[in-house]
Amino acid sequence: MTRTMWDSSVGKKTVMAVSGLIMLLYLAVHMFGNLKIFFGAGDFNHYAHWLRTIGEPFMHYEWTLWVIRVVLVLAVVAHATSAYQLSRRDIKARPSKYVHARPRASYATRTMRWGGIILGLFIVWHILDLTTGTVHSGGFQPGHPYQNVVDTFSTWYGNVIYIVAMLALGLHIQHGFWSAAQTLGVGSRTRDRVLKIIANALAVILTAGFIAVPVGVMTGLVA
Amino acid sequence: MKLTLRVWRQKNADAEGAMSTYEVDGISSDMSFLEMLDTLNEELILKGEDPVAFDHDCREGICGACSLVINGDAHGPERTTTCQLHMRAFKDGDTIDIEPWRAAAFPVVKDLVVDRSAFDRIIQAGGYVTAPTGAAPEAHSTPVPKADADFAFEHAECIGCGACVAACPNGAAMLFTSAKINHLNVLPQGAPERESRVLDMVAQMDEEGFGGCTLTGECATACPKGIPLMSITGMNKEWLRATRKAGKR
């Protein structure tokens, strides 16, 4: 069954849909967690520390976090690999363009591939910036995420990279969520309106929720 | 009406093609698009030039033979087949671009004619029922719920013209394949091959070098028969169901 899945274009889309939904679920939790920053350094740092102690004493320190990280890495790899292979196939299937060209489909639909690449690069930067601190501006302090976040969003490029990536995320989710429903065969004419509303709502809420943090730092609400 | 036509001319499958410009005069707005091309071809023949090759057959919008991309739209600006498109959709002095279907799986044979036998092979992979053939059976011998009959009819409307492939930015044949699968899979007559049909037809579709669906919706917009985009959702559902069942065996 695994072979049939991966060998078929429909199966690969299923892999994309499922891995995308896993990441979407994580993002919803991540965005909600981020908002603790508006309650001050104490609350935010306490929340960040709790992430490492989830499931104790059954799970050892950071075990749950590592389980989540492994699942996410698998989801990203599966999503990107199937996207790459399906895109290669799509481009090969349409070798010559029409002379009379016109813009096709919605902006969100047309930017799925570029948007995906932007998001992939963003994830790398985001981890190097706020998890490992490798490319962090100023002195990265492990265990003091509040200060680290303020440092990142005190630089112009930190804000630009983050906000551009979050806008790309919104567009990606808007088309991606609805598409995942079609790929998994749960879309229907009666459900279509609801699915589109959920897709738009998820896109707007997640983008706004994430961008609230740099905006908070810029306006001095978070300092 | 006086029109400027820019037409894709290509001697054969291996030749390089290019757009050629022609002027046609005295076009009536009541002519069909194909009659307008007939007028051009008559002039070309009288001048001793090679007429423009294009596919056509019934000219009634039911056979699926005509296949032109007009000003970037498969079958032109109206939601119908090229043969049912009339010149009243254009204005005097217009420049019209005419191109063949573009897809790796639909190679150009000559000018505006493409080879669509990839569709035939997808049908051969499972787009049929293995019921005994012969005289038409008594209509009520196999009862079909009204909703299922309507669903099957809606998908059976597909005439296999390939406009979905031509319109799709990925050259995908998902709408065609899904229309054929949904049409048969919902009916009791199609039930014995319900799983093998969807698995085999999707596999053949991939094998022919068609792209995949990115849900741009271009196919359903171009379809002269109004096959809905949700048809693809239905095919995905059938495919996942069949794959699950095959895994259990």
UniProtKB/TrEMBL annotation, chain B:
Single GO term (MF): metal ion binding
Its name, as the record gives it, is Succinate dehydrogenase
Instruction: Give every 4Fe-4S ferredoxin-type domain span.
Output: 149-178
Family membership: Belongs to the succinate dehydrogenase/fumarate reductase iron-sulfur protein family.
Q: Which domain of life is it from?
A: Bacteria
A Gene Ontology biological process term: aerobic respiration
Q: Where is the 2Fe-2S ferredoxin-type domain?
A: 1-102
